Amino acid sequence: MLGAIIGDICGSVYEHRPFKTGFPDEVQLINADSCFTDDSVLSVATAEAILLQQDYAMFYKSWGRRYPNAGYGGNFYNWMMQDSNEPYNSWGNGSAMRVAPIGWAFDTLEETLTEAKRSAEVTHDHPEGIKGAQSVATAIYMARNGASKQEIKQYIETSFGYNLDVATQEIWPVYYFEVSCQGSVPESIISFLESHNYEHAIKIAISLGGDSDTMACIAGSIAEAFYRKIPQDLIDYARQKLTQEMLDVIDHFFFDLVVK
Prior knowledge:
The chain has 15 helices and no strands. The protein has 260 residues and is mostly helical.
């Protein structure tokens, strides 16, 4: 889960200043101006909902209202400020950016898929919104359980219909800012598939020049599960950017559900 949050923080400075390059190692991950965004807030909310076995919608609203300036999409912001819990049929990548804890928390792929759907459909009840969340949670679940990149790729392509055969060297010259699941989740997964370590995965995701914080969040969430190692300097850097209540949930989740 921390892998998703680090990706969000590292990508935050590039969200509105795209850094498009065919040389991902040029991407600078540690920046003084970086910050956590809605990706991190809602990932923490997902984790706490799982820990307390409570409704996702309630925690998305309560955490979102605590951090109202974290950069939410307009539809989500309106939803979180209203009393009604009716979803708004979104296909945006918000469902995929907040799903990482689910990939870690459950013992079977069936449970993981069910919970990913539940977490998505409180807002993103469009089929593409649900598919985006399920595909990312599935990749994390498979990665943490020892699946190879080829196995992950094949399962995601077969089960969700994403084309993961496009190289990032073909993507970045023509890519643009895209917030749909169908237009950003496959590219984020490809960033992980092409990487050779955690840091490289989030650099590739940022280098595509799209919705950088969310794509680095998604790529980072899978890379953490696969590589099992995040550079300590990135961990220290990210923890300094988070609030104590966020760190409390992250640590509780890690020790209670990941290292159990």
